[in-house]
């Protein structure tokens, strides 16, 4: 949460930020989710993402927002490292589905791609500025196994 006239800022790669505000009460807040879900298959757990969403929503209600008035904008979820799993897509999908399930209108989103983003959220207004950060994507890890001399091993 922030004071009126304030700004909340973050930088995102595969992480996802949800900017949520009540335009009537003129209060807002933002979360930053590193990994929305843990585990896989039948042992998948979304407790981390749910907790991040509930903390910001409950904080807004505590500051005078009404749940029925809440609106959201979602950012991030980039694929930052080629050749690895796309955790950014999983994070983005989690937040979008969560908002739908909870009946919170998502008025805009900027998800995916391969660029990092800098986000500036003006919570009293619901206004968000996004700046793409070029060159932030990381190439796949290099793997050098063995050499002509013998036993070299380089995984990074």
From TrEMBL:
Concerning SUPFAM superfamilies, the annotation shows: CNF1/YfiH-like putative cysteine hydrolases
| EC numbers, comma separated | 3.5.1.44
A single Gene Ontology biological process assigned to it is: chemotaxis
CDD domains per the record?
CheD (cd16352)
Catalytic activity, reaction form: L-glutaminyl-[protein] + H2O = L-glutamyl-[protein] + NH4(+)
Task: Name the family.
Answer: Belongs to the CheD family.
Descriptive protein name = Probable chemoreceptor glutamine deamidase CheD
Q: Which organism is it from?
A: Litorivita pollutaquae
The opening ranks of the lineage are: Bacteria, Pseudomonadati, Pseudomonadota, Alphaproteobacteria, Rhodobacterales
Gene encoding this polypeptide?
cheD
């Amino acid at each position: 949460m922030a004071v009126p006239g304030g700004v909340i800022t973050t930088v995102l790669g595969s992480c996802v930020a949800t900017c949520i505000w009540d335009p009537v009460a003129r209060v807002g807040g933002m979360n930053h989710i590193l990994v929305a879900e843990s585990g896989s298959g039948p042992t998948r757990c979304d407790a981390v993402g749910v907790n991040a969403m509930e903390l910001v929503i409950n904080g807004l209600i505590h500051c005078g927002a009404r749940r029925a008035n809440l609106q959201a904008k979602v950012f991030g979820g980039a694929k930052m490292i080629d050749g690895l799993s796309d955790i950014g897509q999983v994070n983005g999908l989690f937040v979008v589905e969560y908002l739908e399930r909870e009946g919170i209108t998502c008025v805009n989103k900027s998800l995916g791609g391969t660029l990092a983003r800098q986000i500036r959220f003006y919570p009293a207004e619901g206004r968000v500025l996004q700046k793409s950060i070029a060159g932030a994507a990381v190439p796949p890890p290099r793997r050098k196994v063995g050499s002509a001399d013998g036993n070299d091993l380089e995984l990074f």
